[in-house]
Amino acid sequence: MPKIHVIHESGEPDQTVEFSAADAPFSHDGEPGSILDVLLGHKVHLEHACGGKCACTTCHVIVKEGEGNLSEMQDNEMDRLDTAPGLTMHSRLGCQAVPKGDVTIVIPKFNVNS
Amino acid sequence: MPPERYGAVVERIRAWTPSTRSLFLRPDAGARMPFHAGQFISLALPVGESPPLVRPYSLASDPEDALLEICVDLVPAGIGSRYLFSLAVGATLDLKGPFGSFMVDAPPAAAMVFVADGTGIAPVRAMVRRVLAHGGEHRVQVLHGAPTEADLLFHDELAAFGSHPRFSWEPVLAGAGAATGENPKLEALVLDRYVRADADRTRHFWICAVGDLVRRLREALRAAGYERRAVRYEQW
Ligand SMILES: Cc1cc2nc3c(=O)[nH]c(=O)nc-3n(C[C@H](O)[C@H](O)[C@H](O)COP(=O)(O)OP(=O)(O)OC[C@H]3O[C@@H](n4cnc5c(N)ncnc54)[C@H](O)[C@@H]3O)c2cc1C
């Protein structure tokens, strides 16, 4: 089963969630099986001011490992990330990126939209 | 403008149709939330399997208005919208905002075309009011889709702006019973007028509606040669 390892830049302890993609969706919000959906369904908090509809960047995460295990980025995610504070080469939106294997992500301290 | 959390009271309710209403919200203690016209607020609703249920709503009001106005559709089997429809004047809400980049930050040096379907007119109404108040010389066009004339929110106000020399507002009616987000006439009009009719690709677009119509229009306009950043959208 794939795992999402979460590092909180805020200093909270790391968390790891193991999930079976076949059980998605795990919550109300984000693409089914996305990082946001999996984390919310396993009680790991990730901001999602737009309800996981790719209309803001509050679920911005930075992928440390396993980038190749994520679904490919679509236009709408690219357009939105364009406006994300603290954008990096390894940025994704949690509501859109769907893990197919293990990933390690950082939840930045500033994941509030400008 | 970093988002902040506010408590708010429903101060007034305006029913547009049996399934669409505006809620006018007053932030606690007379606080005023600074925002750009076109942005949205995020409501934390005490419903759903693991509350709060987070639902975004665009602001139809002007940043200078004392009350925040949101226009809400009652979505069949929708938990969040059903809750909002159950609220009476005096109810309280927990909100955070502002969010989003669907706005007019710098008035473009080109014609502006707003394409809205249904309640998608809410952020467009806010942006158009700002744009017209701030002068400029380029045309501002609004294509406003809805099933019937009775479903055109802000009808009178937008029609009255028609006297403004560089503004035009065109209702595009899909017909009674048309499903939300399905307006083939609106889609065809955009493509006929802005893709097939001429080679001008300098216009800037703001598109707001429910569902896949938004993606189709965005892709068609960009594929036709409009610059990526000149085609802005918000898909509900
Ligand atoms: C940035 C942003 C701004 C938004 N602004 C508004 C707004 O100003 N007014 C508003 O009514 N909604 C708005 N929405 C949609 C709103 O956030 C909710 O999705 C909607 O109220 C349905 O939530 P629900 O919990 O009732 O139903 P859910 O069960 O969550 O939704 C069911 C489905 O309803 C569809 N839907 C979403 N919005 C509408 C709608 N307005 N009419 C018909 N079907 C819809 C969607 O396809 C959704 O998948 C906005 C969405 C986004 C992303």
Write a structural description.
The complex is a heterodimer of chains A (114) and B (236). Chain A is α+β, with helices and mostly antiparallel strands and 114 residues long. Chain A has one domain: Ubiquitin-like (UB roll) (Roll), CATH 3.10.20.30. Chain A has 2 helices and 5 strands, in the order E-E-H-E-H-E-E. Chain A has helices at 35-41, 75-81; strands spanning 3-8, 15-18, 60-65, 91-93, 103-107. Chain A is globular and about 35 Å long. Chain B has 236 residues and is an alpha/beta fold. Helices cover 22% and strands 33% of the residues of chain B. In chain B, the strands form 2 sheets. Chain B has a 6-stranded antiparallel β-sheet, covered by helices on one side. In chain B, strands 9-8-7-10-11 form a 5-stranded parallel β-sheet, sandwiched between helices. In chain B, helix 2 links the parallel strand 7 and strand 8. The two termini of chain B are 23 Å apart. At the A-B interface, helix 2 of A face strand 4, strand 6, helix 5 and strand 11 of B. Bound molecules: flavin-adenine dinucleotide. Flavin-adenine dinucleotide sits between chains B (40, 55-58, 70-73, 75, 78-81, 100, 119, 122, 180, 210-211, 234, 236) and A (50-51, 53, 55).
